[in-house]
Amino acid sequence: MSRDHAFATQNKFPEGATVVGIVAASNKTPVTRHTGDVEMHPTFLTLANIHSEVRMKATAHAWRCVAYVPVVEFEAPSECQLILQGRLWHKCMNKVFVNLKTAVKIGHFMPDPYGALRYGFTPLVRWQGDLVEKQSIAVVAKNASPVSQAVIKQFGDNFPHPPRNGSPGEVWAEPQSTQ
Questions:
Q1: pLDDT (tens digit per residue) in 123-157
Q2: Could you tell me which residues come within 8 angstroms of residue 19 by beta carbon, excluding any fewer than 6 positions away?
Q3: 120 and 72, same structural domain?
């Protein structure tokens, strides 16, 4: 969220309201090793206005775990696993973030560090995760970019590939020609 984007976002909200940017993060993590290899996606939230040096110190307790999303193996063909797991993840995130989605649309009164009530809006300004996590969230194959329609053979070329927009079929579409 750049300075210009932050000001543009702030200007969309009523006078006196403030933007309380939210940063989320997740990473698939093994929960058990010897008793079934269970994996989860722990999901964490923090505020965007906390300085990154403070936010990244474990002793600062700036992050809060808000959900553990299961990684499930479905009784379905292997080519459907990625899509079904991605669908489950998104359904869970819709339930976890229902209040934040409401607060970004209509706002919510919340206390500031001094105890005064402020009218705030909570847009998600960043999602942190490694490449595998972002590919899982975007429900794309392991050889595809989670943010553009480029595939691994096209990584690093000079051609600007179109961004992903969630359209059906773009996940498995053949790569576009660079000529």
A1: 888 888 888 888 877 888 788 888 888 888 888 88
A2: 6, 9, 10, 13, 120, 121, 123
A3: yes
Task: Answer yes or no: is pLDDT of 170 > 50.
Answer: no
In this prediction, what percent of the chain has a pLDDT beyond 70? 89
Q: Are residues 59 and 8 in the same domain?
A: yes
- Paired with 108 in beta bridges are 120
Closest CA to 104 of 12, 1, 8, 3: 12
Tokens for 30, please give them.
């093994």
The answer to whether residue 53 is domain-embedded is yes
Domain count within the chain:
2
Measuring CA to CA, which residue among 55, 10, 60, 47 is closest to residue 126? 47
**DSSP letter, residue 21:** -
Write the burial class of residue 165 (CB in 10 Å: 0-12 exposed, 13-18 middle, 19+ buried): exposed
How far is the C-alpha of 25 from the C-alpha of 48, rounded, in Å? 12
Kindly state whether residues 21 and 52 are assigned to the same domain: yes
Name the residue range of residue 64's domain: 3-130
What's the pLDDT score for residue 176?
A: 38
